[in-house]
Design a protein that fits this description.
Bound molecules: guanosine-5'-triphosphate
Shape: elongated
Helix content: 10-25%
Distance between the termini: 45 Å
Mean pLDDT: 93
Low-confidence stretches: none
Largest sheet: 7 strands, mixed
């Protein structure tokens, strides 16, 4: 099987962390999301992947080099200054995917543990032109909800209905099986949305089907979703801390500590702390419910709760970083400061005074 991964979006909801990395390379428990996706595809007998990206995303992926897991990887690059949306990049893969057999398409910002083969079988059985993986949620009001007939044919999508209005609890999971005939529906070299332009046409033509997927499914589109996805995966794959810690380190499970991390005395890590490689943490620090990207430095007596600290960021001594804060890559927070809840600090920005009002500091 072949798969196309859409990963050339701008991830505006994950700014400022996404100013310096594409969403698909955000680490999930210290491993880029894209690598998790590759692993999932390999275990489902996918052999070839086309990354539908823009030139900058391709650059980041080639720099970071996530493990390919034995997959043959090709790129389909959006034209310069023309983001193609969610359908245009699929058209852009036409020459690589070829007009042969149905293929998988998935959003590069989804963590899902699903059986692609089962999805493919359902697609072949109904003779659909497109089959959308549907995920069941408790409250569908934030999503596009599928209205189905008794044969799982999608009649309609209802965007963000109230809980009461929603015809089902089944939402578009951002994972599809498409027949190559789909290429005839998408304009070439133009921005086009699969959800808003292509699927409604297919629904009208009775060629759009849904298939309910079981198993883990998470969207990392927003900071709180990204933190939550890390927590869930940390719970699932919790491993004993293997890095060398000084005797005075207290780690409250679950935690994940990558290579070459240095942790000072009387520091308490966790629960739910994820430390990337080369992180340096001082004495008497508390970090919980948080993600610290690689190379960040945290000074003595600092408290970090429910926050994300970017790559190579420097947090001074005696600082409080509160719930929902995002400190982007290479930002610097000076000593003795208090950062209020949900404060975002842009890359390389230096903060030298306490901030008590929710804000984005650039
Ligand atoms: P937000 O700006 O936060 O909404 O994020 P996004 O636009 O990056 O993601 P969205 O959830 O809207 O898009 C779904 C998937 O399509 C993601 O994996 C994106 O990377 C991808 N995508 C969105 N727009 C483009 C595009 O113009 N080109 C390509 N190649 N992929 C895209």
């Amino acid at each position: 099987m072949k798969a196309v991964i859409l990963a050339g979006g701008f991830a505006t909801r994950l700014r400022p962390l996404s100013c310096s990395r594409p969403k698909t390379l955000f680490p999930i428990v210290n491993k880029p999301l894209l690598q998790w996706i590759f692993e999932g595809l390999t275990t489902n007998n996918v052999t070839e992947v086309v990354l539908a990206v823009n030139a900058l995303t391709q650059f980041h992926i080639k720099q970071q080099k996530p493990a390919k897991c034995g997959l043959k990887i090709k790129y389909a690059i959006d034209p310069p200054k023309t983001p193609l949306g969610t359908a245009g990049p699929i058209k852009n893969t036409e020459k690589i995917v070829k007009y042969e057999e149905p293929f998988i398409v998935l959003n590069g910002d989804i963590f899902a543990d699903i059986d692609y083969k089962q999805l493919m079988d359902a697609h072949v059985k109904t003779g659909a032109l497109a089959t959308i993986a549907l995920h069941k949620v408790e409250d569908p009001s934030r999503y596009g909800v599928a209205e189905l007939d008794k044969n799982n044919r999608i009649k309609n999508f209802i965007e963000k209905p109230t809980k009461e209005q929603a015809p089902t609890n089944f939402i578009n999971a951002g994972i599809y099986i498409l027949d190559p005939k789909i290429f005839d529906y998408i304009p070439k070299g133009k921005q086009c949305s699969i959800e808003r332009e292509i699927f409604p046409t297919l629904a009208k033509e009775h060629k759009l089907f849904g298939h309910l997927i079981e198993g883990l499914w998470m969207d990392i589109g927003k900071p709180e979703e990204y933190l939550q996805a890390n927590k869930i995966i940390l719970d699932k794959i919790y491993e004993k801390n293997k890095s060398k810690l000084s005797k005075n380190i207290e780690a409250k499970k679950p935690v994940a500590i990558d290579k070459r991390v240095i942790i000072g005395k009387k520091t308490v890590i966790g629960p739910y702390a994820i430390l990337g490689k080369n992180v340096v943490i001082g004495d008497n620090v508390q970090i919980y419910d948080s993600i610290v990207f690689s190379g960040a430095k945290i000074g003595d007596n600092t408290i970090i709760k429910g926050a994300i600290i970017g790559e190579d960021a420097v947090i001074g001594k005696n600082v409080q970083v509160n719930i929902g804060c995002i400190i982007a890559d290479q930002a610097k927070i000076k000593d003795n400061l208090n950062l209020t809840k949900e404060l975002s600090v842009c890359p390389a920005k230096e903060i030298s005074e306490t901030i008590l009002k929710r804000n984005i500091i650039c």
